[in-house]
Amino acid sequence: MKPTITAFANSPDQGQGLARDMQVRWALEEVGQPYDVRLVSFEELKKPAHLARQPYGQIPTYEDGDFVLFESGAIVLHIAQTHAGLLPTDANARSRAIVWMFDAHSTIEPPIVNLDIAELLEGDKSWNAERLPLVKDRIRDRLRPLSNRLGNSDWLDGAFSAGDLLMIGVLRRLAGSGILEDFPNLAAYVARGEARPAFQRAFAAQLAVFKAASK
Ligand code: GTB
Hints:
Elements: E1 4-8, H1 21-31, E2 36-40, H2 42-45, H3 48-51, E3 61-64, E4 67-70, H4 72-82, H5 91-120, H6 128-150, H7 162-171, H8 184-194, H9 197-213
Parallel strand pairs: 1-2
Antiparallel strand pairs: 1-3, 3-4
Helix pairs in contact: 1-4, 1-7, 1-9, 5-6, 5-7, 7-8
S-(P-nitrobenzyl)glutathione is lined by residues 11-13, 18-20, 45, 57-60, 71-73.
């Protein structure tokens, strides 16, 4: 049976793959698992049928029969644990890959979300111009150690893993900020992820939703 995921019927990013269904699609493509997509409008997100799947009324979700998951990181971990290809088989190496999944969402992403908030929601505040450089510096403070750890390696710990998938998904949110360009090895790391055929398929699938909606 094919799992069903949810995604925005009208993604505000206009198909740039920044909404979090992208990571779930990418993971499913990496492991070769076909899937269905239920497109959800902003109104439907907050209705009981969707709230039963996702208590905060957000995407993405993952359903396999009666089995329902939310939280993109947990969904990607489930896919990686139930299919070959996204986590090493050695127990310690697997745990190290999972470290990077947590790191992406709990250490690297929060200051990046703060930048989105500062730019999108606080742009009209009198103190915004003074605060913005501080918000950007906090991101650089997180990216510096990450860049040092990656060094000249292709991926964070050996072969490409679910840790890289989530990390690249988070770093992609910096597109257009100019910050990633301060760390050329991280910019190249993101480009390497985006060049993967599975990423390309996932990106094309979510872009097709935007194109169909704007016809
Ligand atoms: N922790 C949850 C997870 O990882 O699954 C967070 C899920 C979440 O933030 N979902 C967002 C959502 O459904 C979409 S991804 N928001 C609707 C709401 O809260 O009402 C975040 C997102 C949205 C849009 C862009 N964009 O347009 O660039 C980027 C990221």
